[in-house]
Structure prediction request, 294 residues.
Amino acid sequence: MTAKSIAVIGSTTIDKIVSPDLSCYKIGGVTTYAGITYSRHGLRTVAVTNIAKHHPELITCLKNEKIKVHSGQTEVTTHFINSIDDDTRWQKILQRAAPIDRKQVAAHIEGTGMVHLGPLHPADINIQAFELLDHSDIRVILDVQGLVRSVKNNVVYPSVSKHLSAALQCAHIVKANALEYESMADYYQMDLAPLMQRFKINEFLITAGSKGGCVKEITGKEIRYKAAAARTDGDPTGAGDIFLAAYVIGRMLNRRTIPDACKYAAKLAARQIDGNYINPQYLDPGRFDLLNKT
Prediction:
């Protein structure tokens, strides 16, 4: 096992981005944004995901970034519509790939030092996979976003999944945005400090877009950070995934302090919003003729 290796687990997506000044398609998901970030920082990166056979170009996109892709069986690829206005967003899920199951995860985490869980909806990763990780000695990073959502008639709504506790139980570093954390606090009826103690979470990141955010340690210490300046009309899709991956790189790989890791992560997320990190043209599915296959 090596700390310089990581398995990123979650959907690889085709996203339609809609904003007042933008309408386009992009390849997305945690495997794309976090996976590319880890790989570009020298980590041996594995993506455990489900991509339909008629979308092999998504796999090509990840492989071009030196990410080893393990895709399971699925009839469709996850397809989102993200409508964005400043720091607010509403989402639709037009298609959902088959859930990533325990067998997939078990087969592809051997030898990895870390796992990054990025479910995009409650059924994205099977609960047995969380339970498997809880009984391993692998360090687990969790973005809760998909576990504080429900999907009704393809529309995404805030709602805490019954599987969230199993995911938190196996996690060492957790990220939620401010609204997601509020949902969690209401669901568990406890503040952050006792929540972290209950699930033995070492560090909990709460992000608030352009307002910055904070990191809470299990000791109770809280460190606030400022957001880096970014274009107000930029596309924030994937910035949260990149922020968390960059924070983990700072903490786990480069042994930076929490303030330094937050500063670096905020800077990289701002670069993404500005279009200066992962080139938007690189993520354009039109390069791969994906739009005719969706």
Notes: The longest strand covers residues 2-9. The chain is about 30% helix and 30% strand. Residues 258-274 form the longest helix (17 residues). Residues 290-294 have pLDDT under 50 and may be disordered.
